[in-house]
Each structure stands twice: as structure tokens, then as C-alpha cells.
Write a structure and sequence with these properties.
Layout lengths: L1 H4 L1 E3 L14 E7 L2 E7 L13 H19 L12 H11 L4 H19 L4 H5 L2 H11 L5 H20 L30 H9 E3 L2 E3 L4 H10 L3 H5 L6 E2 L4 E4 L2 E2 L6 E2 L10 E4 L2 H7 L17 H14 L8 H13 L5 H8 L4 H8 L7 H17 L2
Helix pairs in contact: 3-4, 3-7, 4-6, 4-7, 8-9, 8-12, 9-13, 14-15
Length: 387
């Protein structure tokens, strides 16, 4: 029975075993296996070991293990000794997002999270709230909001999974608030080109004659329905429903154009329905069945599409900062500025969390202060007249 509760040993080959400062070893049982944990004597202010202090630490650990086992909340400390970088890599590989999403997490891991926290244990990072806050607010303090949010999501995601998997009991890194850096970094690509500029981008220019983008319908799918760029690559004519009033998207193209993947944050077969502007259906309705952006049996390749898009956008005179994602922003702006509820817009965008929509597009929602004042004044007039 004593062995099950843990045994404290001190193995040493020193001549004076009573005064050495070697580690004390606690042997205990977990999951049917014998484990060990070592505790060195602490040092005093002069750097000399306090003899027996390591033994007291081992005794404290022994008591905690016995208590946690009785309370059925015991977690083997060995499970939390995994290197944090390795746990991040596993979490990313299991993430349900697209390859581009996983790549964004890996970039943040290698450039920022790894150098600061990567070589620590999972259990150590779980308690290192100050260091995590310094990483997010100081080291990444001048970066974009999206970059810092990715770093925070990676760190807390790994720690949350560690708790669920029984590797750590809890962590102290949740509810870390990030300043918005004035919002400029996140809104650099909120550039809304004119209709004539989009026509030039999609169809080409006449003076001098320049061909438009190879897949012109992608421009209007992003602008008219708010699709992500990879989603616009994988739209089929059969995705248009109810006489062209609804677009049902359920897949997106891989970045190499060789395969189709589930939508971002969705499982295979899940979809979302989006309202379709009449001008877009007019472009599509007489086209043959199949993928609208497939040429010679191939879907667009992101690494080829993006440079062509950027080059033609400059030729069309569209301001710097314009990206394919800007077309999605323009779709949202058109709806929110005309009073469409942001909850509906969030569903059409494919955001699982309405807070993501507010964080990105909240500045586009018209203020309702004036309307609220009118309603309150009218309500008061009715109320006071009946008194």
C-alpha cells in the first residue's frame, strides 16, 4: 500500500550522504506504471543547499498525489511534460481548417510562438500567463490584430485541448484581451473599387488592349456573394438554386487546384446558402453545367491567380491594398450600410462566431443612435399623452 501512495528515496554515492545536495526521488504509481519525480534541495542566499528542503518538496508532492487520487482528479505530471512546440504541431495537423489556415498557424508558431514558448513543457506554458501576455502584447504588439489573434487562438487552443485530454488540470491563459491597434492593420485591404474598375479587371482594358483575368466569374462571385477566393474557384452552375436566387456553396478548391475540400470550419457535405444578385445570375444562367471556373479540366491555382489579379488591378487603377478579399469586404459593406442585419450577413459569410463578424466589420455598421433617439422621443410623446 505504501508503494501505491509513493515512496521517497535518496540515492547517492557521496562519502557524506547526510550532507549532500543530490536530488530526492519520489516514486509513485500512475495508470498501472511506476513513475519517478526528482526534487533537489533549494539553495539559500549564499548559494548553499538547504539540506532536506528537497525532501520536503517530495513529501508535498506525495501528499498532493495521494489527495488527487482520492478525489479522482489526479493527472500524471509526466503527461504535461510534452514540449509545447510538439503539442502545437499536433494541434495544427488535427485542425479542421483549410491548408491555408493551417499554414497561417504554422507561420505564427515558427516565427513567434515557438521562439518564446516552444521549448517549454505544456504544463509550464499553462501557468505562464505573464509570458503569454508579453508575447501577444509586446513582441506582437506592433503586428496586425489578425496575427495576434491567430497566436492567441493557437496557444489557448493547445492548452484547452491539453485540459480535455487530461494532460493538465487547467491553464491560466484564457481571457487575454488584445488592443485593436487602432484597427488600421486589419483594414488595410478595405478598398472598394468602382464598377468600371472591376469591369476592366474582369474583362480587360481597351487602351492599350489588355486581356482581363483568366477566370472573370470569380470576380463577381466574390463581389456579389462574398465568397472566399478558394470558394469562388469551386462553384458549379448547379450550385445556383431557386431560379438563380440562391447560391449553395459546399466546397472550395485546394490552393494547388488539384482537389476539392470542405468549406472552412465545416465538415464534408455541410453548406451555406447565400442570396444572389440578379446581375450575377444573368452572367451564369446560359453557361453549360459544371464548374464555372474550370479551364481545360483544371481549376484555378492560387499561386498563379493571385499575381495576375494584383497586376491587372494595378493596371485598372485600383488603389494599393486591394486584394481578392477586398471583394468580400465590399459585399459586406453593401449589405450592412443598407440595414441588413449583421447576424444574417455573418451566416452568409460562413462565420461560426458572430463576434468574428463584429470584430472585422463592426465599423461598417451604421450607427443607430439617431434612429434610437427618434424612437425614444416618439415613445415618450405617446406615454406622456396617456398619463
Amino acid at each position: 500500500m505504501r508503494q501505491r501512495q509513493g515512496t521517497i528515496l535518496k540515492k547517492c554515492q557521496c562519502a557524506n550522504q547526510d550532507r549532500c545536495s543530490h536530488k530526492w526521488t519520489l516514486r509513485y504509481w500512475a495508470d498501472g506504471r511506476q513513475r519517478e519525480a526528482s526534487f533537489a534541495d533549494e539553495l539559500d542566499s549564499s548559494g548553499r543547499p538547504r539540506y532536506g528542503s528537497g525532501k520536503r518538496l517530495a513529501q508535498d508532492a506525495q501528499l498532493k498525489i495521494a489527495h488527487d487520487k482520492r478525489a479522482r482528479v489526479f493527472i500524471d505530471p509526466k503527461l504535461g511534460s510534452a514540449r509545447f512546440r510538439d503539442e502545437c504541431e499536433k494541434w495544427i495537423s488535427r485542425h479542421s481548417g483549410t491548408e491555408s489556415t493551417k499554414a497561417a498557424y504554422r507561420n505564427i508558431l515558427h516565427a513567434h510562438v515557438g521562439p518564446v514558448l516552444g521549448d517549454r513543457t505544456l504544463a509550464a506554458v499553462a501557468q505562464a500567463r505573464d509570458d503569454v501576455m508579453d508575447l501577444l502584447t509586446v513582441r506582437l504588439g506592433e503586428g496586425s490584430n489578425s496575427r495576434r489573434k491567430i497566436a492567441r487562438a493557437l496557444i489557448t487552443g493547445v492548452l484547452d485541448e491539453g485540459v480535455r485530454a487530461g494532460k493538465i488540470t487547467m491553464h491560466r491563459c484564457d481571457d487575454i484581451t488584445l488592443s485593436d491597434n487602432g484597427g488600421n492593420a486589419d483594414h488595410d485591404d478595405f478598398v472598394f473599387p468602382s464598377h468600371s474598375q472591376l469591369l476592366m479587371l474582369a474583362n480587360g482594358t481597351g487602351e492599350p488592349p489588355v486581356s482581363g483575368i483568366k477566370y472573370p466569374l470569380t470576380i463577381w462571385l466574390m463581389r456579389g456573394c462574398g465568397l472566399r477566393i478558394e470558394e469562388s474557384f469551386a462553384v458549379q452552375k448547379s450550385c445556383f438554386r431557386d431560379g438563380g436566387k440562391i447560391l449553395r456553396v459546399y466546397e472550395q478548391a485546394s490552393r494547388d487546384g488539384k482537389s476539392k475540400l470542405p468549406l472552412k470550419h465545416r465538415k464534408a457535405g455541410e453548406y451555406r446558402d447565400i442570396p444572389v444578385p440578379a446581375y450575377l445570375w444573368e452572367m451564369v444562367k446560359d453557361l453549360p453545367d459544371g464548374y464555372l471556373s474550370m479551364v481545360d479540366g483544371k481549376l484555378p491555382v492560387y499561386s498563379t491567380y493571385r499575381p495576375s489579379f494584383n497586376r491587372l488591378a494595378r493596371m485598372a487603377g485600383i488603389p494599393e491594398g486591394f486584394t481578392p478579399h477586398s471583394l468580400r469586404h465590399a459585399f459586406v459593406s453593401a449589405l450592412l450600410s443598407r440595414g441588413v442585419p449583421i447576424t444574417d450577413v455573418a451566416a452568409w459569410l460562413g462565420h461560426r462566431n458572430i463576434n468574428v463578424t463584429y470584430a472585422t466589420y463592426g465599423h461598417l455598421v451604421p450607427s443607430s443612435l439617431g434612429r434610437a433617439q427618434e424612437v425614444l422621443n416618439a415613445e415618450y410623446a405617446e406615454w406622456s399623452n396617456t398619463a
